[in-house]
Structures are given as structure tokens and as C-alpha cells.
Write a structure and sequence with these properties.
Elements lengths: L1 H9 L6 H32 L2 H28 L2 H25 L4 H29 L6 H29 L2 H21 L14 H14 L1 H16 L7 H8 L4 H24 L6 H19 L5 H29 L5 H30 L1 H18 L1 H4 L4
Helix pairs in contact: 2-3, 2-5, 2-6, 2-7, 3-5, 3-14, 4-5, 4-7, 5-14, 6-11, 6-13, 9-13, 9-14, 9-15, 10-11, 11-13, 12-13, 12-15, 14-15
Length: 406
């Protein structure tokens, strides 16, 4: 009986019909997204053999989200988030189709792939601020919200487990074009799920302020809300200095482990496996649990696992630490996002998430560019070793705040 209640508690957000539809559609789409992401990085690396170009690829694909995320947040707060999300999903599908056509033509250049990746970054700037707050509208019982957010992370990371593994196999057997085409097809699932939803009738809010005033209000709100401000700072530092370790995985696959595209896919999948376990763990955490203390522990786990991953060339052992890094990484980012969303006022949530997108999509591409340059000088293993040290320094720096409720 106790076990049954625990399982029910873990998946309680599925009692919300709209959220169940969203989860199902996004699960398929996210697998395609990870297939495309893996394919783009591998194609660029095999064409250039440059760690710097890997960093530049991430930078180009995500920095536009930083530039336009504030506008995306305003759009999320001013307009129907459901329609905004539907538009971004259709636009993302078109981008994947264009990438597939370009690759199948077999006359593509690196700059063309980077251009299409940049277009996707602009689309994501409007997608993320609409997607996350819309979950609040899908969940009728607000007590289920933390569980829905944790399950959302588990869905993303299950896709991270499956997508790269499939991508590695497809890259070897059929080529990158097939990865991109399958991603385009995967968007059909999420578009159908959105069309089947029955959300409350949208009431247009009167727009009384200019965009500049909305931006100023959002910044003032963050400045005056310490719990959100500190989580944003921690998320930004981790995104800039630690999370870009993913950028160097193609180098590990080809140089350290002497493998191919399938090897790269497997590394991503082990990280995804750890992230999936992390998401299930977070979904099972009781509402009264101290999330800040769990955040502290998993920031340390992330740092230690990166230190050890960087030092082993024996693939099975390295994959254990890769999975452990996925666990720590996902706990870290998910808890930061959960605290930020739960503590945000409903009327400010879109703008808050746009600042979150800036902290993540702004810092991560910059970090990827920096780590690409550093790796070019000192090598990928040494670069990831120092990223592990940095994670531990961040954990120590935020120790007092994260232990404040103990």
C-alpha cells in the first residue's frame, strides 16, 4: 500500500488532462530535438576537427535566445501563451525541415548550419518564456505544480537518454539528414497535443504600459525578490562556468575514447540516464523537503563527477561518472527553476522566465565559446577538470544561503 501511494505521488500531475497531453507530445518532440542537437555538433566537429568551432556552434544556436528572451517574456505576459507556443512549435518544425533539405543536398557549409541554428535560437527565445508558465495553466491543482515541473524535467532527460543514442546510430547508418528529418516529424506530436487541449478561455489583458516599462518592472521585481535573485545568480554562474562541459563531448568521443558518432551518442545517453534518475528522484521528493539543501548536495555531486570523468579514459568507468554528472546537473537546474517559478507572482512569471532564459541561454553559449577556446589550448580533459573545480567553488560560495533553512 505504501509503495502504491509513493508511485501515485510521483506521477500525480498526470491527473491533469492537459498536462498529460503536453507531456506525451513533448516527449516525442524532445527526442527529435536531442537527435538534431547531437547531429549538428557531430557534423560541425567532423568537418572542422575544432573544439573552438564546437563552442561557436553552441554559441550561435543559443545566444539569440539571450538577445531576444526579454521580448519573448513580454510576449508571454501580453498575449495568449498557448498560441505563442503553437507558433514556435510550427516554426521549429520548419527550421528542422530546412536543415534536413540542406543536408540531403550534400552541398552544405558550416556557416549554413550555423545560420539555421541561430534561427532556432531566436524561435526558442519566444518558446521558453511561454512554455514554462503555460504549465501553470495546464495544472488545475496547484499543489501538483512542483511535481509537474519535476516530471517535465524527467521527460526532457528521458529524451536526452534516447535521442543521442538513436542519433549516434542513425548518423553512422543513414547520415545527419535523417536525424534532422526525424526531428521535423517529431513536432507533429506536440502540435497535435496542443490542438487537443482544453484550456480556459483566454482573456486579453489591457496593455497599459510600454515595452520599456514592462522590462523595468521585471528587473525591479527580480531585484526586490531575494529568493529568485539568488537562484538566478547561481543558475547563471553554473551555466557560464560548468554546464558547457557538454560542448567538449565530441572531442572525448573521437580523441579520448577513439570512437565515432555512436560513441558520442552513448556518452550523451549516459548523461541523460543520470538526468532521468535525477528527475524521478525530484518528482518523488515530498513537498516539505528542503530543496535548497538538495541543491547544495547536487552541486557538489556535479563538481566531483566532472573531476573524475575528466581523468579516466576507460570507457565504462568514465560513463559511470558521466551518468553521475547528469544526475547532479539536472538536480541543480531543475531545483533552481522550481524555486524561481513557485516564488514568482503569476502576473510576472513570463518576464521572470525571460530573465531565466537570459541567465541560461546567455551564459551557456558564452561559456561554450570560452571553454572551446580553453580546450584548444590545454585539452578537453584539463578543461573539464577545471569546470569540476569551479562547481565546487560555487557550492562553497552559496553554502550559507542554501543551508539557511536548516
Amino acid at each position: 500500500m505504501i509503495k502504491t501511494e509513493r508511485i501515485t505521488n510521483t506521477f500525480r500531475a498526470f491527473g491533469n488532462r492537459n498536462y498529460s497531453l503536453f507531456f506525451g507530445g513533448q516527449s516525442v518532440s524532445q527526442i527529435g530535438t536531442w537527435m538534431q542537437r547531437t547531429g549538428v555538433s557531430w557534423v560541425v566537429y567532423t568537418m572542422t576537427h575544432s573544439a573552438f568551432m564546437l563552442g561557436l556552434t553552441v554559441f550561435v544556436s543559443q545566444f539569440p535566445s539571450f538577445l531576444f528572451s526579454l521580448l519573448g517574456g513580454i510576449a508571454s505576459d501580453r498575449y495568449n501563451r498557448y498560441k505563442v507556443l503553437l507558433i514556435t512549435q510550427i516554426a521549429s518544425m520548419v527550421q528542422a525541415v530546412l536543415l534536413a533539405i540542406l543536408t540531403y543536398a550534400n552541398h552544405y557549409r558550416v556557416w549554413e548550419i550555423l545560420l539555421l541554428s541561430g534561427i532556432l535560437g531566436v524561435i526558442n527565445a519566444f518558446d521558453v518564456p511561454a512554455r514554462q508558465p503555460l504549465i501553470h495553466e495546464m495544472v488545475t491543482d496547484k499543489a501538483d505544480l512542483p511535481n509537474a515541473l519535476a516530471l517535465n524535467s524527467s521527460m526532457v532527460n528521458l529524451a536526452r537518454l534516447i535521442g543521442p543514442a538513436l542519433s549516434g546510430i542513425i548518423l553512422v547508418k543513414f547520415g545527419a539528414g535523417t536525424c534532422f528529418l526525424l526531428n521535423a516529424v517529431s513536432f507533429v506530436a506536440v502540435i497535435i497535443s496542443l490542438l487537443l487541449m482544453k484550456l480556459p478561455v483566454y482573456v486579453t489583458a489591457p496593455v497599459k504600459k510600454k515595452i520599456r516599462s514592462d522590462l523595468s518592472d521585471g528587473f525591479t521585481y527580480l531585484k526586490n525578490t531575494s529568493s529568485i535573485r539568488i537562484m538566478m545568480l547561481m543558475l547563471g554562474l553554473i551555466s557560464l562556468l560548468v554546464l558547457p562541459y557538454n560542448t567538449l563531448l565530441p572531442v572525448f568521443a573521437k580523441v579520448v575514447f577513439k570512437g565515432d558518432a555512436a560513441t558520442y551518442g552513448y556518452i550523451n545517453s549516459f548523461i541523460g540516464a543520470g538526468a532521468v534518475i535525477s528527475s524521478v528522484f525530484l518528482a518523488s521528493v515530498k513537498p516539505e523537503a528542503n530543496l535548497k539543501f538538495i541543491l547544495l548536495i547536487n552541486t557538489i555531486v556535479l563538481g566531483v563527477s566532472l573531476l573524475l570523468f575528466s581523468q579516466f579514459s576507460y570507457f565504462p568507468l568514465a560513463m559511470f561518472f558521466a551518468a553521475l554528472s547528469g544526475f547532479g546537473m539536472m538536480c541543480q537546474t531543475t531545483i533552481c527553476l522550481t524555486i524561481i517559478q513557485v516564488d514568482s507572482d503569476p502576473e510576472m512569471r513570463g518576464r521572470v522566465m525571460s530573465y531565466v532564459a537570459m541567465a541560461y541561454f546567455g551564459m551557456l553559449p558564452l561559456g561554450s565559446l570560452i571553454i572551446g577556446v580553453i580546450s584548444q589550448k590545454i585539452g578537453a580533459p584539463a578543461a573539464i577538470f577545471f569546470q569540476g573545480i569551479t562547481a565546487l567553488i560555487i557550492a562553497v560560495s552559496f553554502y550559507k544561503y542554501l543551508r539557511s533553512d536548516q
